[in-house]
Amino acid sequence: MPRGQAHLIGSSREAVQESAGNLPICPGLAPGEPVKLGHSGRTAQTRLICGFFACHDTLMNPVLLGLPCIFKADLRNDPHSPWFEWTLGLAAAEAAEWSAGSAVMLARLSELLFVAAVRGFIDALPTDRKGWLAGVGDRFVGLALAILHGKPAHGWTIEQLAQKTGLSPAALVQRFTHLLGEPPLQYLARLRVEIAAQKLANDTVAVGRDDAGRL
């Protein structure tokens, strides 16, 4: 659930709903240690491991904006499923048996699983899908995006991007616009505004005026 909407977890829609805020909570003793919720119901015991990622509320987060409100990562049918199952098992063990370094281990394992889930979503996109994630999955547009995000302050031209991606300038603009809805340099301008907004929000830069009164 990329945008963290309120949701229900249960065995069926008819199950009695119980707010997580009303469940007994066993907070972690060490910083970063998982919080455990319990329920005294008489039904069969179920164990769920939940986690979340926190990020800055930015004006332009293409990964989160490109994902649906909820999606399921079918890791079992992935060619790398043994690796995923091993990673999930290790994460469950670290959460259950907290010890030195567990917080770092869980953070890195969660990042790996998140990247794997998003990559699987991109690989499964239909060929006619448009948007930022579809652009990332495209051989030429994905390379152009990597170049722009890698050096956003560089004075890129369409000719330079075309040379690096292996397309003609016209073909690159057409392909990029078809998938992302705007040409590369317009996308770059928005990216620069977003980077500036992040720096201003983090108080890492100051805004002033020169002698001519320009910002």
Automatic annotation (TrEMBL):
What are the UniProt keywords, alphabetically? DNA-binding, Transcription, Transcription regulation
Query: Which GO molecular-function terms appear in the entry?
Result: DNA-binding transcription factor activity; sequence-specific DNA binding
What positions does the domain HTH araC/xylS-type occupy? 142-207
Q: Which Pfam families match?
A: Cupin_6
Name the Gene3D superfamilies for this protein.
Homeodomain-like
Tell me where the signal peptide lies: none
Question: Could you identify this protein by its name?
Answer: AraC family transcriptional regulator
From which source organism is this entry? Caballeronia humi
